[in-house]
Design a protein that fits this description.
The complex is a heterotrimer of chains A (about 120), B (about 375) and C (about 170).
Chain A: H1 3-29, H2 58-111
Chain B: H1 3-38, H2 54-63, H3 75-91, E1 101-104, E2 107-110, H4 119-140, H5 144-175, H6 180-186, H7 192-195, H8 197-210, H9 222-225, H10 235-260, H11 275-297, H12 303-334, H13 342-369
Helix pairs in contact in B: 1-2, 1-10, 1-11, 2-10, 3-4, 3-10, 4-5, 5-6, 5-8, 5-12, 8-10, 8-12, 10-11, 12-13
Chain C: H1 3-24, H2 28-48, H3 52-77, H4 92-111, H5 129-138, H6 144-165
Helix pairs in contact in C: 1-2, 2-3
Classes of the chains: A mainly alpha (about 120), B mainly alpha (about 375), C mainly alpha (about 170).
Amino acid sequence: MLLEYTAIAAFIIVTAAIGFIAIGLGMLFGPKKSTDKKAMPYESGMNPIGPGTRRMPVHFYLIAVLFILFDIEVVFLLPYAIAFRQLGLFGLIEMLIFIVILLVGYFYAWKKGALEWE
Amino acid sequence: MTFALLIEWLIKGFVLVLVLLGGFAYLTLYERKALARIQVRIGPNRAGPWGILQPIADAIKLIFKEELIPAKADKLLFILAPVVTLVPALVITAVVPWGSEIMMFGRVITLYIADINVGVLYIMSVASIAVYGVVLAGWSSNNKYAMMGGLRSSAQMISYEMSLGLAFISAIMLAGSMRMLDIVEAQRTLWFVLLQPVGTAIFLIATLAEVNRPPFDMPEAEQELTAGYHVEYSGMKFALLFMAEYDKMIAISAIGATLFFGGFRGPFVDTYPWLGPIYMLLKLVILLFGMIWVRATFPRIRYDRLMAFGWKVMLPLSLAIVFITAAGILLAEQVNPLLIWTVPALSLLAGVFTIAMIDRELRRKEYARA
Amino acid sequence: MTPDQIIFILTAALIISSALMVVTTRNLIHAALWLVAALFGVAILYAVLNAGFFVVVQVVVYIGAIAILFIFAVMLTRREMRDRGPQLRKNWWLAALLGMLAFSGLAFLLINQADINRSAAVIPAGLDTLGALGAALVSPDLYLLPFEVASILLLAALIGAVYLAATRK
């Protein structure tokens, strides 16, 4: 068992407890006089128009996919960044090939307009 | 694992949380005062001398405020979202060393919660969880402005996360370790900001976007989204979201100070270990002032430009920086140690080239419009 | 029981119950969040196995990226993020039977493994596991080929996503 992770788990519990205590304090001391008007969605004082949650543009999905791919790339780079001193020029070229293959996709996405926002 | 150790962890965690809460309270005052001075105002000066009781007054006010929950909101998630936002903002500091170790109550106390061998990656992972609070707050409010703000904010955070990770990698390469203590130790003679100035700049810009600070505060643009993802929040729940934002600023500055500005190292810190937290505090105050100064100076950047900047400028530049760092260190190790200075030279060259390209692009657009 | 075993049992209970919630809950966003809980449980399992690198990678990649993609996808698909159809299909018992069969087969194989009772290996202090991993990734006689092929897989995924989602004018 990794001792350090237990320490982090203890820290997570402390912080979550602080958060819930703060919310509890607010609930304990705050007035509770909810009316229908107060519980309406806030739209700068106007009556709300249409549903609150709506379909989001497909573009956000595309950004999330691109993010996953580059995130995985960063994760692969990390162990290399520790070991690259022993690996020398050979390792550098290997990593360059890995990145260049992904960059092909990056420029494809750029040319296809996936990085543009209307 | 002994019982005493568990108690020590809990106490240390509790003390760190209290320090961060106090830091949050006084950071708000610091920001208001500094902004006021920059705008030739005085700022809060009524509650106590120089307004030092202002944060306490604010806290008491917020506790006694009514908490509204919109009728159509997803109640459980609506209440959970502030906690989900706050926990990563505080937990991210677990691996930041505030000093080495000191003797207290007859035992050696380390001035950090955990020293894991993947410290930097831990920071990345907690930063990636931070997106959830924003998405949940935006979605559970059942308000279209909150939803839009949450989506924009999450897309912005994930877009700048890769550049942040790559900036981390340049620091990891210079230190040859992901352990935060090793990174601090590696900067004994030379801060990494001097070896990798462009990497530091990328880190500072990406973190501004990551914590939704101006000029990247599009998600909460008051004029068009009324406040973004926390529009429906009031009372203590709003205070928690606010606290998370400011604690993220503190955490990010502490991480930046550790990775690029020598961490808790400073003159005489080896003989007097208690100087460590003081040096950290000094560096924090300076870095935080930078964030406040940026807020007072730059106008908000348009959302399409913000995303384009993240994907088309920051990502390629930070990839190039990682390669320059790797190649420069290999050159220095295998040819001549002095060649390490090719790293800052080539990085600055890449940075200048990028700025020139942006300038050209903007001029071209201006020309097309005219 | 050792502390490791207690943590394992609690974590396994967390993973299984949140996985059940993923398939039974009606609200799609809630289902995605239960999935996050299950993935987090897997991260805890990695911590019990002394695999620190995989703990954080699990959180970065699965919770921080893939589950976010799921949430975005749910928000993308429907105006009402709620499943209204019947919860069970007509021949659900067939699926349950097949699932039980697969589970018992796997359990049988596992129990007959020789080293089923072995506890997690203790990593000697000072061993640079991360450096070893990085070296293994780019050395030709270990994982170089899978590593480079992985980049082609990522490239294919990227091109596919752009082709599907990029707006055609």
